[in-house]
């Protein structure tokens, strides 16, 4: 029997990319899904394309409306009576040099990629504690383990997620709370197109590394396996995954390798 069968899973950033593919694959596994993103009409389309749309509810939200986190959680719990797994997938990337990036862009990235996730996760914590069970799944990035040019704000926000959720795991393991940090490498989504540039506008173009990355289908299969195994951390991608281990033992070598790669 599939360990995730009948679990209530709340996915943020569910309107596209990894979040959308997760919805499709989890629906095939007979999970009960709550899909969140800003655009209600897009969420409806994703729901209708799921294998079991009757077991899919949508909860439109803007993750940076921190003051509404408690009410969003209350609504999410009421939809099926509980939430078993919260998949924090909403986020935005960046493509700009530090010297050419407005400070406001850093604030926007931090609000979306870090504080929005923290707000929703903290709001649902009492529910997990009450049930003595709950699983946070956080879509971070390999950029949460090491850095790369043009992604300074994105790297900073993803590094922050690891700091927060490592503490969450330690403080609430005794309450049955689990944390899985998922670190994608290059995945073929529109993340580069929607990345913020130095003045806050969208890049609106893709790059070869992203286009040649893992398919969302392949990536999500591996991610779901990690969720079922309740792994602490998982790194999913191509050869770029080796950067995590090179960073740990040979940080100067990784510095040279990343600069040589000239990845945008």
Automatic annotation (TrEMBL):
Any Pfam family: adh_short
UniProt-listed InterPro entries: NAD(P)-bd_dom_sf, Sc_DH/Rdtase_CS, SDR_fam, SDR_family_member_7
Matching SUPFAM superfamilies: NAD(P)-binding Rossmann-fold domains (SSF51735)
Family (UniProt): Belongs to the short-chain dehydrogenases/reductases (SDR) family.
Protein name in UniProt: SDR family oxidoreductase
